[in-house]
UniProtKB/TrEMBL annotation:
This is Strictosidine synthase conserved region domain-containing protein. The keyword Disulfide bond does not apply. Keywords: Glycoprotein, Signal, Vacuole. It comes from Hibiscus sabdariffa. It is found in: Vacuole.
Amino acid sequence: MMKSAAFKLLYVLFFFAHIARSNGDSIFENYSQINLTQGTGPESIAFDCKGEGPYVGISDGRILKWRGPKFGWKEFAIPSPFRRRNLCDGSTNSDLEPVCGRPLGLKFNTETCYLYIADAYFGLSIVGPYGGVVKRLATSAEGDPFRFTNGIDIDTKTGIVYFTDSSIAFQRRDVDSLLRSSDRTGRLLKYDPYTKKVSVLYDGLVFPNGVALSANNSFLLVAESTGFRILKFNLASQGKSGDNVPEVFAQLPRVPDNVKRNGNGEFWVALNAGRSGTAPSGVPDPIAIKFDEEGNVLKRLDGNGAITFNSISEVKEFNGKLYIGSVTKPYVAILNA
Ligand SMILES: *[C@@H]1O[C@H](CO)[C@@H](O)[C@H](O)[C@H]1NC(C)=O
Ligand SMILES: *[C@@H]1O[C@H](CO)[C@@H](O)[C@H](O)[C@H]1NC(C)=O
Ligand SMILES: *[C@@H]1O[C@H](CO)[C@@H](O)[C@H](O)[C@H]1NC(C)=O
């Protein structure tokens, strides 16, 4: 009796170990990574008009371009003409971010091929297709300076840029305090390239982070990190009814970061797993969720407890691959889509 129960238990344990292992293997089956050679934390990922890249913004304030395994990373842009190279280049010290810069959201305008940058400290900036020193477009809205510029997307028809300022109280280097707080000072902002004016579309948000427009620009998704949810702002009705009150698009099991639309008009929401190390295998470990336009879950990416995926900021689908960014890891992870 005792013996058979023990055997059963052993059998069950082996069974689960097998499931956990085969799952663990599958996420790494087509895994590869592009290591950074300096700095860390490729938070957001972009590809240019020619499909070249990825481009990433890193911990030392620079934007780098990947030119393939033979040529490696090349500096593409710096966030300020006054940035001190000897102090900043290669820095991973978050206390230097206010002087070195910290590019977060990156987005090419597909019409002009200019890159728009949401730099956590330097605000909304732009740089041409050949890079160089970025030009600052805006650092405040309606009298309140940006404190933590973060996510970005562009309406390619109008050129209007949507972006977030995560808080007017906390800076990016204090993100852990912001996550523990009940701060509701985040803003959803809009930059009009013709009038060069920034307006506040919505304020009082709970750590607004990534933003993504729908394929025909009729609505905008905004991740509320500490709210564990994605809000949907209907842009088509804007101005008609006069209110911008959002709907809840999705509730999430973990802290959402960037939201990126793929070529099919679907959305990848990156979830910060918030683990400091590996997690037990076999336990659900969602690191990203793919949604359709109605908010239905199409796919869940499971990190299988691996330390590789314990800090995810973005999943960018491009040419059949998923490029996975992180604020803390020194690499871009790549999986098959
Ligand atoms: C890995 O890539 C191969 C070849 O493209 C494909 O057949 C297989 O399904 C992929 N596995 C996973 C887990 O994506
Ligand atoms: C990237 O770095 C990891 C960890 O240091 C190393 O195992 C791997 O071989 C590197 N990959 C490449 C392509 O250099
Ligand atoms: C934009 O897309 C939405 C969702 O797919 C659709 O309901 C709406 O009719 C479209 N609007 C226009 C102007 O095409």
